[in-house]
Amino acid sequence: MMTHSRWQGKHVLVLGLAKSGTAAARILKQLGAKVIVNDQLAFDQNDAAKELQQEGFDVVCGEHPESLVHEGLYAVVKNPGIRYDHSLIKKALKLQIPVLTEVQIAYDIAPCDMIGITGSNGKTTTTTYIHDMLVGGAKTPHIAGNIGVVAAEVANQASESDIMVVELSSFQLMGTDTFAPKIAILLNLIDAHLDYHGTRDEYIEAKKQIFMNQTKSDYLIYNADDEIVCEMIKDAKATLVPFSTKKKVDGAYVEDGYLQFKGEKIVTVDSFSLPGEHNVSNALSALAAAFLAGGNIKTIQNVLQTFSGVEHRLQYVTTKKDRKFYNNSKATNVAATVTALQAFEQPIVLIAGGLDRGLSFDELEKELTNVHTLVSYGETSELLAEAATRAGAKAIVTETLSEAVPHAFRESNKGDVVLLSPACASWDQFKTFEERGKAFLDAVYHLDD
Questions:
Q1: Is residue 290 a contact partner of residue 133, using CB atoms and an 8 Å limit?
Q2: Cβ atoms 331, 337 nearer than 8 A
Q3: Do residues 239 and 178 both lie within one domain?
Q4: Domain for residue 174, yes or no?
Q5: Does 54 lie in the same domain as 27?
Q6: What is the CATH classification number for the domain harbouring 432?
Q7: N or C: which end of the chain has fewer CB atoms below 10 A?
Q8: Residues within the annotated binding site?
Q9: What is the spatial distance between Cα 408 and Cα 401, in angstroms, rounded to a whole number?
C-alpha cells in the first residue's frame, strides 16, 4: 500500500458504512488517521460496525450526534449515496470541513495511472470495454468504482505496473478535491439525479470534477456530439480528445464504414458486435482510451468485434420462436430507454414500468414509432399505457414484471424484439435494477416454447 501524508494523524469521520465506508475506514486507519465511524443502522443489526469495533474503531450507530462534527475534524468521508442535506454534512460544510468520498482516498494512495469514466448513460459498458481492451497489454487493468468494486480497495492492492479503470458517478465525483485521472472520459449529459443534486447546474458541476484538476499532460476524451458536454469542457486544461459518430474529429470517429482513431481504420461498422449508435459511441470513447493507455491494436479490434455487452444493459438474452429478447433493466430513466429503442430497426414489444417519481413520459412517447405494443407494470403502468395509446401503440397494463413477460411474448410477431427497458427506477417492486433484470431473465426462460 502507498502511504500518503495527507491523512497521517488527522481526525476523520466516516459517515455510512456499506462496502465503500467500511473499506475507507480500514484504509484511513492504515494511513495513520484517527477514525470514528457513524452509521444509521443500529449496532445490534450492523455486522460491519461490529467487525470494525472488534478491530479497534470508535463506532457510533443508530443516530447521528452533531457532536461528531467539530472544528478539530479534518474531513468527513461519506458513503456516496448520503445526500448533502444530511445534518452532519450540512454542519461540516458550514465549518468548511472537506466532505469526500473514498474515490479521493483511492486517488491519494494509487501507485498507478487511472482512467476515469463518467456520464449519464453508458458508463459501465465503456468501463468494461476499456478493461477488456487493455487485458494482456503492458499494464494490468483493474476495474473499480461505481461498477461495484471499491476504488480505494483496488488502489490499496495495486502496483506501478497496473492501471485502474474507474467508473464514476456524480455522487462519487462530488466528493473529490484533488482527483485527476490520467485519462478522463465524459460520455454524455442528461438531466438526472436532480433529487440528489437539487439543480441541473449542481449535477453538471459534480460531473466536471472528473477533469477540473487535470493538466495538459492528462487526456480528456469527450463526446463531440453532445452540446452540453462541449460546453462543459471549455473549462478543461487537459489535452482534448473528441469522439463522434456523426463527423470526423481529431480523435475517434466513424468514416468510410470504419471505426477510426486519428486516421487509422480499426474495425468495420458491419463487424462491430453491439446494436445501436449509442454503443458505437461508447466503443469510440473506449478505443480512444485504450490507444492512449498503450493498448494492443489486435486486442482492441477483437474486443470491438466480439464484446457481447454487460448484464442488464441492452443484454441479448435468447431467441424464442424467432423473437429476440433483450434485457435493458439498467434503463432507469426515459433517456436510457429512448437510446435503447433507437438501437433497433426491427418492430419492438416494449416492457416498461416501475417507481413513480412524478416524471413525464412525453419524451418517451415521441420515440415509440417502432413500438407496436407496450406492456406496462408497476406504479407507472397506467401513465405508460396512456403514453403508448397517444403514440398509436397497443397498450397492455399488468401488475408485475413476471406477468408482463408472457403478455409481451403473446403480442409479439416473428422477427420482433421483445425489450425490457423500464424507463423507471426499480424500487417499487425490486431492491435493485439487477434484481429486476434477473426476474426478467427468469420469466423469459420459463416461457412455454
A1: yes
A2: yes
A3: yes
A4: yes
A5: yes
A6: 3.90.190.20
A7: C
A8: 119-125
A9: 10
Q: Is 159 exposed, middle or buried (0-12, 13-18, 19+ CB in 10 A)?
A: exposed
CA-to-CA distance for 313 and 147, rounded, in angstroms?
13
What nine digits make up the cell of 416?
A: 420482433
Compute the distance between CA of residue 99 and CA of residue 401 in angstroms, rounded to an integer: 39
| Cα–Cα distance for residue pair 16/29, rounded to 1 Å | 16
| Residue 449, pLDDT above cutoff 60 | no
Instruction: Give domain status of residue 321, yes or no.
Output: yes
Query: Looking at the structure, do residues 55 and 203 belong to the same domain, yes or no?
Result: no
Task: Enter the C-alpha cell of residue 360.
Answer: 413525464
| Residues placed in the known binding site for ATP | 119-125
* Domain shared by 211 and 341, yes or no: no
CATH of the domain at 92: 3.40.50.720
Q: Residue 324 has which C-alpha cell?
A: 429476440
As given in the structure block, the three cell numbers for residue 26 are 480500514
pLDDT-derived band at 203 (thresholds 50, 70, 90) equals confident
Residue 2 lies in a domain: no
User: Does 400 lie in the same domain as 360?
Assistant: yes
Collect all residues with Cβ–Cβ distance below 8 Å to 387 and sequence separation of at least 6.
361, 362, 364, 365, 368, 374
Give per-residue pLDDT as tens, 114-150: 999 999 888 999 999 999 999 999 999 999 998 878 9
Range of the domain at 385: 315-445
User: Both 91 and 134 in a single domain?
Assistant: no
328-355 pLDDT, tens digit each: 999 999 989 998 998 888 999 999 999 9
How many domains, the chain?
3
Task: Please name every residue paired with 11 in a beta bridge, in sequence order, or none if there are none.
Answer: 34
Q: What does the block give as the cell for 219?
A: 487526456
266 and 214 both lie in a single domain: yes
Q: What is the pLDDT of residues 365-404, one digit of tens each?
A: 999 999 999 999 999 999 999 999 999 999 999 999 999 9
| Closest by CA position to 74, among listed 52, 40, 100, 48 | 100
CB 266 within 8 A of CB 297: yes
Residues 204, 194 contacting (CB under 8 angstroms)? no
Q: What is the pLDDT of residue 146?
A: 86
